Predict the 3D structure of the following.
Amino acid sequence: MNSKRLLKTFGAIKDERRGGTPHEAWLTRSRDIIMMQVRNTTDSRQAASPLTSAYHLFDIFFPLAAFQSFARAAAMFLLVVGAVVGGGLASAGVYKDALPGDRLYGTKLAVEKTQITLAPNEDYRTRLHADFADRRMEEAAALAEGAVARYRYLPDVLVAFDGEVRALDAGIDSLRTSDRAGAVELAKNVERRLAGYRVTMRKASSILPGSYRRSIDESRSLVDSVSIKAMAVIIEHHRAGDVEAPQTVVASNFEEHLNQAEAKINKASDREQVATQAAKAKTAIAEAKELVTEGKYEAALSKMAEVVELTKEVEMDEDASSVIPGSTRDPEAAPAPAGEGTAESP
């Protein structure tokens, strides 16, 4: 290289930083070559979308399994709140037909318990107990008319039913001193419901084996007891001059009860044992009607309690005399299935 060319080269690099700087043309070619190699070895269709990237980032801090557990708990919480705020809508809609042994029955009971716990006042809580008593009686009727294998759930359902009836009884007692009008209205409402329960239990008792009829008889005794108390409240407030319990209401309630009892007695058979009890019941009914006509309601109430017991005895004698030895209604021939009285956990 001659001195002239060497001087020209030195002049071209004198302003460059120490260590030298790559030529721009070389940088451009190198970048193009590298990008071409990247494109040739990468499938652009598999590039992560922003949504996928966000999902992976979310999964780092909130694992999917934990989120699913939280979502299930939140859904159950919203369901319970909806049931309470909506007056039992979720329970009545989603779990209405669930029976003991069904997968959803446990949740149905859990929703009901939550409604009772979160009830805003005693009046609302009492109305819930009335609705739940209806449900337990509907379940008992469905079990009695269903498969024999499900009979074993019946005693527990009746125990739950008894609990609701006792809650109604306590509600009447609570209102007797604090809210006279409310007590009378509740007593009339309860009395109407109890009349329906008696009809349902009578029908169920005619279907079930003897071992299960004993459970029904216990519930019927409780229903009769609370019914007499409801009538006593109506009479008590009538005597106090309460406009919510006029004489026509009192007399009408007596008449309804006595007519129902009379209808049952008239259907009784002429078998000797049944006929004897039926005659006693008819006499008691006639005496009770006379007392009502005379306006002696306290005495009529006592006589009506006697009518209830006599009518029950007639029905029991009727059931016992109608059992055919060796039939499925014979408790000796149809023993209770294993596990009686213990409902499986849903």
